[in-house]
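Hey team,

Sharing the ABC transporter permease run so nobody has to redo it. Sequence (439 residues) first:
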Amino acid sequence: MVELSEFTVILIKELKSIIRDPKILIAMIIVPIVITSVMYLLITQSMKQSITEITRETGTIAVLDLDQSEWSFNLINYLKEKGYTIIETCCIEDIVENIRSNRIDYGLVVLKDFSKNISENKQGLIEIYLSIRSSSMFSIYRDLRLFYSLNDYNRNLSKVIVEKYGLNSSYLFNPVLSYNNIIYKDIQIKLENPVILSTLISSTSFIYPVLVLILSSFLVQLSATSIGVEKEEKMFETLLSLPISRFKLIIVKITASILISLIGLIIYAGLFTWLLSSLINIPSVEQSVDTTVSIDLNELTNLLSKIYGLHDILLVIVCTGVFIILILSLSIITALFTEDVRSAQLTTQYLIIPVMFTMFIAIFTDISSIPIIVKYVLSIIPIANISLIQQFIFSKDYVLVYIVLLSTTIYALVSIYIASKLVSTERVLTFKIFRKKRR
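Structure output:
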């Protein structure tokens, strides 16, 4: 109980020092959260406003109707109903000149025999004039609004013509209907659209490395900054004089960093969930798409549960947790040889860059085509092995997963041991990697 009490006291002290120190609390926690919140708010509001403006089909169209008959009038009336302002023009040169001078948004020329061709089951011809005014995504979509509207009119007209001749529009536009059977290991999944499953799987293989990168970057900077503050303000010597083993001292620092990061992770997760929910409620930009793939949350959960069981999720959590301990212990080791906050934060780049490199390599690596010997080698390489853990679990290579877990655990324990031995020596108070230049 005495040792547990000492551990708890030191842990509480470490948490208080992190929370109270403005260099850590403000720079590492509050400012990133505020910036992220403002950024998410600006993103959602600007996207909502921009897409709402884009999907509101308005604009000025200069129309040159060379046909002057039933279907050309029908097309022009359709555009008026969509909210476009129609002005008549006498020649194509006026359309081009007015678009270049930004007096109109679009130009439309209905060629001669437009209605006659449609009535004779031939293609009616029109010409569209529009300009691309900006390279931004929303501006390009806005400039293409007329194109989407005319595609919509084209589909509606096709249905009218098909129904006129008593044909089945579903059969005519989609004569072959496929039901896809996805074979995954010993599971058979029936889907109308396999793109749903492929997108879901590729998203998980992308999201996991990115989340690990973000979390490890935050933890490394937090732990290194904490030690840098203690050494800068000469609190590290006092900490070493406390009656607690150096091994437990390292565990305290790792535990404190994890606890603080969990709070930040919950806040970031809440902000990210709010961002996603806000983006989902924004109307679609591509109005030309009439057959969208819709899937609800229950179906997504059902698909994921068929691929990743509870055992798989627990393995991911455990492996990620052990990796976090490893990366934190390495961060502590590098931060021990610094003398202030600035140099401590600088040393974190030596850990973040390899993590970033391996995580992005994992996103674009197909391990199914790699020889088994290479897989075993990768499973024991630190940092690189954890970046592939999601793919190992997806392919159900549990031997490789347990090798990753075992090797990462060994690396973490060795790193903690090295850190505790470094802390046990007085040399850690004098040896510096980054020294200030003497004047």
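The longest helix spans residues 194-232.

Ping me if you want the raw files.
A.
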